[in-house]
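Handout, section 4.2: multi-component inputs.
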Amino acid sequence: MKLTWIFLSFLVFVLFSTIFVLGQVDIEVGESFVTLCDPLEEGCNVEYTIEEGFGTFEVTESGSYIIINDRPYSNLGEGSSFKVDEKGEIFEAFIIASNKSTYLIGKDFYELSTGQTLNFKDGRIEITGGEKVEGELFSFEFFPKGGKSLSIESTDSIIIDFDENGNSIFSGNFLLEENEVNGLEGRKGKVTVSNSRKIIKIWENTEAKIDGVRHTVEKPLNIYYDSLFDSKEHEGENYFSYSGESVFAGGEGFSFELLENNPIYPEMEFEKEVYGFDEPKKADFIVDLKGGDLKISNKDSKFIIDSEGDFDLKDGMVELSSRNGLITVSASKGENKDFSYDFVLNDDYFLEGSELKYKDTPVRFFAGPWEKTVENAKNYDFAKRNEVRENLKGEYGVRARDFHGFVNDDREEKFVKWTYEAVESANNNKYGVQITPSELYTMVMLEGLAGDYSVLDERSDLNYYKNPNVPVNSVEDVGIDFFGDPNELSRLKADKFIPNDIGFVKSESDITLEYGTPIYPGEFTNLGEALKGVAGVLAQRKYAFTRDFIEAYGKDEFNKLKDDERMFWTSVYYNFGEGSARAELRGGEYYIQKDGKKTKYQGSGREFFSPLERERAAEDIYNVKNNAMIKVATNELIKEMKYFSFF
Amino acid sequence: MKKRGQVTIFIIIAILIISVIALFFTLRGTLQGEEVYAPEVAPIANFVQECLDKTTREGIYEIALKGGYYEIPEQNKLSIYGQDYVYYYDGGFIYPELEIIENSLSEYVSVNLESCFNFSSFNNQGFEISYSDYSIFTTILDSEVKVEMEGLFAIKKDKGIFQIKEFSTSFQSDFLNLIKVSEELVINYSANPDFICLSCVSDISEKNNVFVSSEVFLIPGFEDQIIFFSVDSSEKVFEDRILNLVFVVRK
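Output:
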């Protein structure tokens, strides 16, 4: 009986022991054990084989776990597998995370999210898939040994290798915390990350954005973060150092671009809004190393660059190239070339605004002639203006008007650009007659735009400075009373003096002045369209004068004409009407209608272009001549002051 | 006999003195670069001379602004916003030979001189002035520009008729230096088209005692940048205007 009890007790012990052993199964692999989860539990099934000293464990039920070298690997999805050597080290692993979990592979931990896979084979780790964050990206956490975690996000798989120093080498296109790594030309990017979480090497064919600097690397580049970096210790090496308030770079086959929050000029702005322009002006700062060395720092928002050897620098508008000790410059050919950041290079080259100087020799860069116009008007030489104006008064008998104040403000750049574009538009006419920006500017300013309460007067309710696209009245603002005449419009369009789609809407009703003079008002959609209208009329009048002059005096005489006489007669044609102007030019008779009366005049021919005689001020014709002479003098003043000239 | 010999010597000496004085007055104008005209026509001759001087100076200034041309040939012309400039390099060298620049100045003077010939005040004084077609010849030398005018000026007053066949002007000018500097700049540019070697430009400026500035434009519709060079002398060639030679280069 006693024996029976002892036997029964033994059976109960064996039964309970068996149940306990079945709860966590220890599998002997060489000198170590691998513990498997309880196969009786739901969500646990791990099959294994032991062969030639290696244990292979395959998860056949999602949610399983195993413990290898006292380290648990939980939330293993179906299909996960481990190959463990005789010392209990993971030799190969394929992990599918059935839930968010952290896994130790080699010396580092990887926190995978649900569905992500980690494939460890031949010393290389590949992490793929999983739940995506922010739409396209998936992420995992990387815990380098002894360091804090790094968050990595990618749209594609990440491959992790290890160098001889135990640093991790990441390949793929991914975000690593605030940094971004991508391959060039469809390849995968590749960087080495130290245990201290820093990117310390960028491999070939990789673009890496690190701490406000974009590196584009064709040949491997070492990255340093030493505050006491000494470039002499890195000769023959491709290096880039973030060293406090300076950066150092040397070598070849890589470039770097300063971005927002870069270490030397963190507040750098790459876009400038310009009044009236839809798009902001853009700039960038890129250095392409070709074997040289540079140190770049920032003093008072100006880059101080010390360099040796070959490199290319793109500073917005300016491209600078250093080869064999020779520095050459050019306007940028790429994107973002609207403006540049000031710099001093080797205490020899000084870039300030649009001007680069070497010793006393300057070169200026402009993304369009309108930029030069505004800049020149800003730096206006009043003493010269006074002198020129005095000379012009002696020559033409009138005082030249000075309108530079309408083009010397950044807000006016759009207006100036429109002026150039209007000239271009009118010069497309089918007769090949050309007008210049200074001629158009003279005409439009004197015909109303410079007047009180025009769209260029800030006192106006509707003005350009409140809204650059303010509508412009064809009569009150720019003085082309007849522009809305359907015959005039169709003639200007037919001869391509104005574009067919000019933004002009004729008023519903015309105006008839006293004594029957008709006016055909209308509205241009904005100042740019108004300038096209005035430019078209001006070019047409210049054409009419040219035609009549050649007919009367011959081509040879026409070719001898100087600009002032051409401007004079063009103005006469503009203001006087073609018929009267032609008669005056040819010395014929004509009639002027004034106050309801017709008065007969005898034209004086080319002598009409002569200094103004005050004593004839009472004559009706005096006003025409006076207006034309003021335009001549004003145009000459603009030409002398050169703010509408290329040179 | 003795006395007669002494008298002869005195006569010879007197003749020599008179000859020297006459020769001095005859050559004085030439030595000073000025013609001396008969008193009756001197005001008119001087007026024509002034016209020639003024037009020549103006011409140098004007054609320098157009790269040395009076009329820019099509292959050299950059027309932009109604303004014409001169290419010296447009994928290849196209700067003008010195002879072309000389001819350009001749042409400028020839065309513009006549507009200066306003003889009305002389006509009011009883002069009748007529002139034939004239030819202008320019020589640009180191530090000097010479312009000669060949034609026939007939000046009639009362019963006297005077003729002047030639006028000439010459003055110191840095024009040739500017032309040579421009060539040097273009040759330098052609070594690496599309780029400006600023230190090279500076060296060239310093060596030749001129001021060179350049402006680089990106123009809508033009694929390549357009570079304007201006080579400036300190010379005030016309009124208060500085002589500067302007040209354009493009890759």
